[in-house]
Design a protein that fits this description.
Residues 29-91 form the PDZ domain. One of its GO terms (molecular function) is serine-type peptidase activity. This is PDZ domain-containing protein. This protein has six helices and 17 strands. By secondary structure, the protein is an alpha+beta fold. A hairpin with a 2-residue loop joins strand 4 and strand 5 (71-72). The longest helix has 14 residues, at 145-158. The mean pLDDT is 85.
């Protein structure tokens, strides 16, 4: 692990732990892609057991993905590859142009996107009063959290909510793309959400690449996205990673007030790689900055209104 520039987040997963990663699989086909030596996407791990990629038997570790949903992968970072999938109108099938050893040209492959049916992580309650308050509890950022949050907000708005409390206490984070999707519900399209600083050369700390991810187009659900909403975020020392990406984006863009206690301070991003024995390896691949350029690693997000209290399990 030292050869990987290991930090405290770099670790091995047993087969059960690696299989549990499926709930954070935004791609939904069981493939982990990363830029290869020639700049095109490469399948860097065996397909996730039980996934559509594994069941197909048509793609394996080491294969090159020349195109993803019709988009050339050359020059795209790991995060940009996820963006290609996330922007796709077809949520049920992903298409690939795959090159294996000996192939003269890419061969077409269509795989079913099988995002696990995860128990709804969001609870919502409407409190009556002069201004109707919608309360939303978000326990993690898994592959479905962005759409679940949109559904919850749309439902509360239909009931007349004009103010919202989003409770992220004890939320340890999860899928990077889900945090961006969630933040996009409150920000105008094109508003900066997070900047990722990715190490290009593990042996040279000065070789870095920065990418800024911006708010996506409006949700198709009926939540009337605008920054006039009165939004309060509740954080504590158990709020980390994707929770902090989401919270930093809303606060830095003046779309929410943060209350509670200082968040955990996990400003690094990990990738998960499958190994031949069905175990996995978690490796830190990047760090992130909030829209204001703030690095929160080891520091966390300080609340605008401090309300100390116990963390929520």
């Amino acid at each position: 692990l030292k050869a990987l520039g290991a930090d405290k987040y770099t670790r091995l997963l047993d087969p059960a732990g690696y299989a549990a990663v499926a709930r954070f699989d935004i791609l939904g086909v069981g493939l982990i892609l990363s830029p290869g030596a020639d700049g095109r996407a490469k399948v860097v791990s065996p397909p996730l057991p039980g996934s559509s990629a594994a069941k197909s038997g048509a793609v394996k570790q080491g294969d090159i993905v020349d195109t993803l949903n019709g988009v050339k992968t050359a020059g795209l970072s790991s995060f940009e590859l996820l963006e290609v999938i996330d922007k796709s109108e077809d949520k049920k099938v992903a298409t690939f142009g795959v090159v294996s050893d000996g192939d003269a040209a890419p061969r077409p492959l269509a795989l079913k996107r099988d995002i696990p049916d995860i128990a709804d992580p969001i609870g919502r309650t409407l409190y009556d009063g002069d201004n109707r308050l919608g309360y939303v509890r978000l326990r993690e950022f898994n592959a479905r959290s962005g759409e679940r949050l949109a559904e919850a907000l749309a439902d509360l708005e239909r009931q007349g909510a004009t103010r919202y409390v989003l409770d992220l206490r004890g939320n340890p984070g999860g899928a990077f793309q889900s945090a961006i999707t969630a933040a996009s519900l409150f920000l105008n399209e094109g508003t900066p959400v997070v900047t990722v600083v990715e190490r290009v050369d593990a042996q040279n700390a000065d070789r870095e690449r920065k990418e800024t991810f911006k708010a996506k187009p409006p949700s198709t659900l009926a939540f009337s996205r605008n920054q006039a909403h009165d939004v309060e975020l509740w954080l504590d020392g158990g709020s980390a990673s994707a929770s902090e990406i989401f919270s930093g984006a809303l606060r830095d863009n003046c779309a929410a007030v943060v209350a509670g206690d200082r968040s955990y301070g996990k400003g690094k991003i990990q990738a998960v790689f499958g190994l031949a024995d069905s175990s996995g390896l978690v490796v830190t691949v990047a760090q992130y900055l909030t829209p204001a350029g703030t690095a929160i690693q080891g520091v966390g997000i300080a609340p605008d209104v401090k309300i100390p209290g116990p963390s929520v399990p």
